[in-house]
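Q: What does the assembled structure look like for these inputs?
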Amino acid sequence: MNVILQTLLPELLLALGGMVLLIYGVLAKRDQSVVCTWAAILAFILAAALCIVAPNGIIFGGLFKTSDFSRYADALVLLGASAALILSLDYNAREGIARFEFPILVMFAVLGMLVMVSAADMMTLYLGFELQSLAMYICAALARDSLRSTEAGLKYFVLGALASGLLIYGISLVYGFAGTTNFASLATILTGPQGAGYGTVIGVVFVLVGLAFKISAAPFHMWTPDVYEGAPTPVTSLFGTAPKVAAMALLLSVMLGPFGHLLSQWQLLIEILSVVSMLLGALAAIGQTSIKRLMAYSSIGHMGYALIGLAAGTQAGVQATLIYLAIYLVMSFGTFACIIAMRRRGQAVETIADLAGLSGRDGGFALALAILMFSMAGIPPLSGFFGKLYVFAAAIQAGLVPLAVIGVLTSVIGAFYYLRVIKVMYFDAGDPEFDKTATGVRFVMAVGALASGLFVFLPGPLLAAASQAARALMG
Amino acid sequence: MNALGFPILSLITFLPLAGVVFIATLRGDEAAVARNARFAALWTSLIVLALGLYLWSAFDPSQAGFQFVETDTWFTGVNVQYRMGVDGISVFLIILTVFITPIAIISSWSITKRVREFMIAFLLLEMMTVGMFAALDFVVFYIFFEAVLIPMYLIIGVWGGERRIFAAVKFFLFTLAGSMLMLVAMVWMWSHAGTTDIQVLLRTPIPPQAQMWLFIAFLASFGVKAAVWPLHTWLPDAYGEAPLPGTIMLAAVLSKMGAYGFLRFAVPMLPNASAAAEPLMFALGVVAVIYVSLVALAQTDMKRMIAYSSVAHMGVIIIGIFTFTVEGIEGALFQMLSHGIVIAGLFICAGVLISRDETLVLARLGGLAARMPAFAALLMLFSLANMGMPGTSGFVGEILVIVGAMKVNFWVSLLGAAGMVLGAAYMLVLLRAVLFDRTTRPDLNGLADLRRGEYAMLVPLAVMVMWLGVYPASFTHIFDAPVAALVQAHVAALDHPVALAMVAK
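A:
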C-alpha cells in the first residue's frame, strides 16, 4: 500500500489539487485565475519533485509502471506545462480570457500525460490519452468568443476523436488476437511460438496511427497548423510542448516495449512517418506568413527528427529521441514566449513581418529569438544541433544512413525559413513598437534562449539522464 | 596539460569572448559606446595576436605531430571530448587568422551603424575561426566550422551592400548544405572508429568503398567553403556585398577553412579516395584557374574582379594539395598564407576608394597614380604579388605548386601556369583602369591619398608580402615536418594491401 501511494503521489497530487482548485474557483466571489495558475504551477513543481523521488516499480497488477524513463518524460511534461502556464498569466489577462478553469484544465491534461507516460497496459494508456485529449480540446477553444479559437477547438475535437477511435480499435484488435492488453504479457506472447498474427500487426498499425496523430507526425498532421493558429498562444505553446513529449514517450514505450520484437514489421512505417514529417515540415513552412503556423510546421518537422531515434530501435536511438525532445521542448517554449511578447497597442500580432527591425528596437528580444531560431535550424554550437547530432548518430549506427541523409537535407531546407525570421528582425527596416512585455514572459524567453545557447558548455546532466532513461526502457 | 603549463590554445580561442562580454556591457551614449567598442575589439584582437606570436615562438617545428594538446571531458558516454592541439599546418593558419583580424577591425572604423553589435559579431567570428583551426576533435571542429556561419551571416546581412540579404542567405544556405553532408560523414566515421579524436581517426583505416562516399561529402563541404569551381557561385555575391572587414575575413581566412579541411581530413583520412579523385580535383582546379580567370577579366567592378581572382587562386591551392607531393602541398599552404595577405591588401585598397565615396566601377576610375602615389604604390605591390611576381609572396607558392604538379602531370602544370599569365592579364587591366587610364572625370583629382589608419592596415600587409617573397623559409620550416609526414603517410596508405586489392578488383 505504502509503495503504491508513494509511486502514485504525483498523480494523486495533481488530481486532488485540481479538484480542490475547482471547488475554490467556483465558490470564490471574484475571478481567481491568477491564484489558480500559481497554485497549478506550484503543484507541477511539487509533482516534479515527487516524481523524482518516487520508487521504481509496477503497481496495480501491471497497469502502471514507474522507471527512470517515466521520470524523465514526466519531468519534461511538467516543465513544458509550467512554462505554458507562466506564459498564460499575462496573455490571458490582456486578451480578457483569464478564467480559473484554464489552469485546472491544464492540470488534468498533465495528469493524463503522466498516466500515459507511465502506462504499462493498453487500458491505462487509453485512459491517460483520453483524459489528456478531452482537457486539451477545451483548452483549444478557451477564447470561446473568438471564431478562430472555437473553430480550432472543434477541429481538434473531431480529428482527435477520430484518432482516439483508431487507437481504441487498434487496442481491441491487439487484445482480440493476442488475448491481453498488458505490455509485459504482450511482449511474452509476441516472442512466443505462435508469434504475432496479421491481426496483431494491423492492431499495432492502428495504435501507431492514433499516437502519430498526437505527435502531429505527417501525414496525420492536418489539424496542427489550424489549431496552432486558432488557439490562444499560451494554449498553442502547451500544444507544442508537453503533449508532444508525452505522446512521443508513449510511442517509444509502446513500440519498443510490447511490440519491440516486431521492429522489422513497423520500422519502415516509422521511417516513412519520419521522412514525410521532415519533408513536410521543411517545405510547407516556407510559404507561411504567420509565425504560429510556421511553428506548427516546424513542430511537425521536429517530430520527424525525433522519430529517427525510434526508427533506429536501439538504446542509442531512444536516448537520442529523449535528448531531442528535451532540447525541442526548451526551444519551443522559448519561441512561444517570444510570440506572446509580440503585442502592439494591446493587440497580439502574429505575422513574421511584424518583427521587422526588431533588433534595433529591442536587442535582447531579437537576440533571444535569433538564438532560438538558429538552434531550431540546428546550427552549432546551439542546443538544436546536438539534438540532431544524436539522432543522426543513432540512425547511422543502426544502418539507416539514407534516413540520416534525408534528415540532413531537410534541415538545410528548414534552415531557410528559420533564417527568414532572423533576416526580418535584423536586416529589414521597420519599427515594431511592441508593448511592454510582462516579466514572466521575459523570464521564459530568457530561460529558453540561455538554455539553448549554453547547453554546449554543460551537456553532461541531460545526456546522463537521457541515457539512464533509455537504459530503463530498453533494459 | 602541455609544454607551456597553461592552455594556450583555449586561451587564444576564447579570449575574444571576454572582449564580447566587455563590449556587450558597455554603457553610455551611442558615440561613446561605438568608440569604446572599436577600441575594445582592437585591443582584444591585438592581445590575441600577441598570444599567437607567442604560440608561434613556442612551437617546435621539428615535430610532425600535434603540440600543446589539451583534453577535457565534455560529452560523456559517447567518447567526444574537448580536444585542442596544433601541428605545423594549423598553427600557421592560426597565425594568419590572428594577424588578419586586427587589420580587419581597423578597416571596420568606417562602419558607423550599430558598431557594438558589429564588433561582437566580429570577435565571435575570430573565436570560431581560431577554434576551428585548433580543434583536435572532429565534433569540436565541426561546431566551430559551422558556427562561423552565424556571425558571418549577420555581418553580411546587417552591414552589407545593396543586395546584402540575397548574398547573406545564399552564403548561409550554400555552406550549410555542404557542411550538413559532412555531418553525416563525420557521424559515420564516429561510429566506424568509435571516437572523434582526430589523432585516432588519422590512423584508422577506412574501407575504400566507404572512402568514396565520405570523400563526396567532404568535397561538398570543404569545396563550398574553399569555393572550388563549380561550388563557388556564392562567393562573388558574398564578397561583393559583405562590408569590407567581412570581405577581408572571408577572403583571407574563411576560404582557407575549406583547404584546411582537405588537408586535415580528406587527404590523410581517405587516401584511396583522394588518390582516385585526383584527376577530378585537377580538372576542377584547372577550370578554376583558367575559366574563372577569364571571368575575372570580364568584370567591370573592382571588388568583383578581386573576388573572382580569389576563386582562381583557390584553384591553384586545390591543385597543389592533390599533387600529394611535398612541393605541391607546401606550395598550396604557402599560397594559402600569401593569398590571404594579398587578397586582404587588395580588398583594403578597394575599401580606400569606397571610403572616399568613390565608385568601384572600373570604367569610371582612372589616373589615380598621379593623385594618390602611396595608394598607387601599395595597390601595385599587391597586384604584382597577386599575379605571382618573383620577389613577392605570390611567386613562391605558385612556383612550388607548379613544380609539384610537374612531377605528377605535365599538362596540369602547364595549364596551371597558364593561369598565372591570365592572372597577370586581369590584374594589369585592373591597374590600368584604376591607376593609369586617362580619365574624363575632373573630380577624381580631389581624392586624398592614404590616411594614417589606412597605412596601419596596408603597411603590415605589404611588409608581409615582401618578407614572404624574399625569405619564405621562415614560414615554410613550420610545416615542413607535418607535410613530409602527410605525404609519407599517403604513399604508405596507398601501398597498403587493401588498396592493392581494390586496384586488382
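The beta strands of chain B are 67-75, 80-86.
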